[in-house]
Specification:
Blueprint: E1 2-5, H1 20-28, E2 32-36, H2 47-53, E3 56-58, H3 61-67, E4 70-72, H4 79-82, E5 90-93, H5 101-110, E6 113-116, H6 131-148, E7 170-174, H7 178-189, E8 193-198, H8 201-211, E9 215-219, H9 222-231, E10 234-237, H10 252-256, E11 263-266, E12 287-290, E13 293-296, H11 306-327, H12 329-335, H13 337-340, E14 343-346, E15 349-350, H14 353-358
Parallel strand pairs: 1-2, 1-4, 2-3, 4-5, 5-6, 7-8, 7-10, 8-9, 10-11, 11-13
Antiparallel strand pairs: 6-14, 12-13, 14-15
Helix pairs in contact: 1-2, 6-7, 11-12
Length: 371
């Protein structure tokens, strides 16, 4: 199979779909890889590194999309990229379609086979291709929150960990999954007072076992969220419903009662955000202020540390990429129902129920598309 790796074009996005080591692995299995010129240059992988791994260097994105049978990238394709996709071509990337009806429509019109990293599952019910970026984003959320608390960035001028004789900041993490767990670890390590809120008692139990008395675990209710958000210096939104839009758990009324200079970091923004006042931002303009509260809502947070993120992502995606290339997408999905769960759009049909419901369209079970 001929596999294409385009250069990412989203704002401040320097991650790349395949590192040279992954290219070499695919070529060792008899495939060909076409990499757009400069695709990995910003993170230390120049064109020569890809050529030494056996890749062919393409001058333009048009060449990559025009020739490749499968396109492997990181972020969701922008409108110009969607229009270069063609019927039957495989797209393997993060898509986050639920809050993005325009991208959904363009992918349907293209006729491509769109497989979303974020809905591929594993035997434990986890999301193995989302997990590495969730780990990065969870850790970055605390870094970003700590910086946003500085007075020059609109924050209250509070040091996250405090100093002897001065109380630390209160950090509230809504959601105890992969993002939340990593946020808790970082915030705790920096000396903050940490509260984590989740609706799954089993998750809270595991967090309590992992971190002990250094954190407070709270069962999620509207009352609990309101109480702790109002008291917080930094709130991290780490809520995920796979493939679906994030629920708006923090209302503007709650937010308006926070202390001026407090900060929210909405890691759920890729799925629409879990704060009523959230709107997507970018790495060059990451924050804005509503009711005196600093909002950090960057949609590709791991893109801020693209080298680390690219390696972490490739470690997770390579086995699935090999399966798709070796077997073709239909046979690969027949053999692996967890990979089948990644199929979001096929031949113009929406094949992931949560996406169909979010964009108010009909749904065709993915199993029907691989018969």
């Amino acid at each position: 199979m001929l596999i294409g790796v385009p250069k990412e074009i989203k704002n401040f996005e320097y991650r790349v779909g395949l590192v040279p080591g992954s290219v070499r692995e695919l070529i060792a299995h008899g495939h060909r890889v076409l990499v757009q010129k400069g695709a990995g240059e910003k993170i230390g992988f120049d064109d020569n590194a890809y050529q030494q791994a056996g890749a062919i260097i393409a001058e333009t994105a048009e060449q990559v999309y025009g020739e490749a049978e499968m396109v492997i990238k990181v972020k969701e394709p922008q409108a110009s990229e969607c229009r270069m996709l063609r019927p039957g071509q495989i797209l393997f990337a993060y898509l986050h379609l639920a809050p993005d009806p325009e991208q959904t429509k363009l992918l349907q019109e293209s006729g491509c086979i769109a497989i979303a990293y974020e809905t591929v599952t594993d035997k434990n019910g986890g999301l193995p291709l989302l997990a590495p970026m969730s780990e990065v984003a969870g850790r970055m959320a605390i870094q970003a929150g700590a910086t946003s608390l500085e007075i020059k960035n609109g924050g209250s001028g509070m040091l996250l960990g405090g100093v002897p004789g001065v109380a630390p900041a209160k950090v509230v993490v809504i959601g105890g999954g992969v993002v939340g767990t990593n946020s808790v670890r970082m915030a705790m390590g920096m000396g903050a007072h940490v509260v984590v809120i989740d609706k799954a008692l089993e998750r809270l139990y595991h967090l309590d076992l992992q971190f002990g008395s250094k954190i407070n675990t709270i069962f999620s209710t509207t009352d609990a969220i309101e109480k702790h958000v109002m008291e917080a210096d930094l709130v991290v939104g780490a809520v995920l419903i796979p493939g679906a839009s994030a629920p708006k758990l923090v209302t503007r009324k709650m937010l308006s009662q926070m202390r001026p200079g407090s900060v929210i970091v909405d890691v759920s923004i890729d799925q629409g955000g879990c704060f009523e006042t959230s709107k997507p931002t970018t790495h060059d303009h990451p924050t804005y202020i509503v009711d005196g509260v600093v909002h950090y809502c960057v949609t590709n947070m791991p893109g801020g540390v693209p080298r680390t993120s690219t390696f972490a992502l490739n470690n997770a995606t390579l086995p699935f990429a090999l399966a798709l290339a070796n077997l073709g997408y239909k046979e690969a999905m027949r053999r692996d129902l967890h990979l089948l769960n990644g199929l979001n759009i096929s031949g113009g049909q929406i094949t992931y129920q949560a996406v169909a419901e979010a964009v108010n369209q009909s749904y065709v079970p993915a199993t029907q598309m691989i018969m």
